[in-house]
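Q: I'm writing up a methods section and want to include an example of the input and output format. Could you take the sequence below and give the corresponding predicted structure tokens, formatted cleanly so I can copy it straight into the document?
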Amino acid sequence: MAQIDKVQASIPSKVVVHPLVLLSIVDHYKRVAQGTKRRVVGCLIGVYEKGLVHVTNSYAVPFEEDKDVWFLDHVYHEDMYKKIQAKEKIVGWYSTGPTIHKNDIEINEKFKLYNSNPVYVVCKVQEHDEESIPAKSYCSIEEVDQDGSLVKNFIHVPSIIDATEAE
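A: Here is the clean output for your methods example:
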């Protein structure tokens, strides 16, 4: 595995998803999974700025899933990681939704190799409510459950869609 410049991050107050990212996720889905029950997964690139995460770019990562078994192509992901601009970092990952899946905590743990608290964006690509944005963001937290064991769960982080003037 390549030497990793691991980003140290806390839970952001808000996730700002840029339009190019949403277009890339929808394109990924249409090329790979449209008309099936499959979902697609990819990496989110961006910057941290004053408690916000700006998700400015993304790339698709080959992914397969069948109930409890999943495969994320780490070799492909490592090759793509090497091509990221110096000012941008891996800020998290995405999947197509509409909801969180059972395997997502495990997948999120893999992305912790690149960011201590990756943002997970679930993008709705099929049906969309006009009054809400088509993406929901999450971060993982560790909690103690009723029997005293440590459990990892996702918490919702507010999201907005915003663009720079050039976008």
